Amino acid sequence: MRFDDLLLPEGEYPVGVCKNKQEWLFMYSRGIPVERIVAMCRADVRRVRYSIRAAEKRDPTLFGRRLILHDQPANKRANESVITLKELWWEHSARLLGFYRQHGRLPVQNPQDTGELWWL
Question: Is the model's pTM score more than 0.90?
Fold first, then answer.
């Protein structure tokens, strides 16, 4: 099958409602609010909510796993005070300069040695 076989002529693309309940549950489990799911899938809000509630009755841990997934800190600095982009840039520059002074060169893009992963 060629890629061109997957293309439909203009005006023949599906425009209906996405009725895939598994897709709704997947989006919900990834933290997307019900209202956003409804807007993206052009579905009835009552059907989406009912499907999610039914899934939560079958698996009561669904909501808790959703919270655990999205309550994790986004980066290592979550417990520290908020850092500005300017401070981050200066920190990044200082680490790069330190690497240059230690090794006499800039780091390579795809290092073989994990010690060269200086930005971590």
Answer: no
